[in-house]
Design a protein that fits this description.
The protein has four helices and seven strands. With about 160 residues, the protein is of the alpha+beta class. It has a single domain (about 5-155), classed as Aminopeptidase (3-Layer(aba) Sandwich).
Length: about 160
Amino acid sequence: MSGDTIVVGPLEKGDSERIVEIVRGLPEWFTPGAAKEIREALKRMPGFAVRVGGVVRGFLLLDERECCVEIAWLAVERGFRGRGLGTLLLGAAEAYACSRGKPVLTVKTYGGMDYEPYLETLAFYRGRGFRLYEVIEEYKPFGGQPAAVLVKSLRCTGHPS
């Protein structure tokens, strides 16, 4: 990665297959049905990609709510994790939320405290200023599994566009 240009920007029309490839390469975090769900989400949700040397290595999809912006999907390709790419994507999400006049960013993730990949996920969000708001014990969209709801209050400056 050293020497490669890193760029975060809006998703482009042709990014879908690369995003699905990233998701399929992370089976510990995504169910087999996630690829189909993400394909559908790409049609209706704004998002960002992080490109290293021109290749998508991570992505983020956002769901704008009345009160806030929710991170619907976030992933960084295996082999590129732990290099700050997820943090760059979060920065893009924060800027987007502020531009929309919504100084709160939320995310729901698996909330079981017994699964190592999601303990990493919780640590990632907490390390970037998110706080645990609640754990929903049986969250239907997660197949009845627990969901952790994390929230970050943003320090937006200026007025939304």
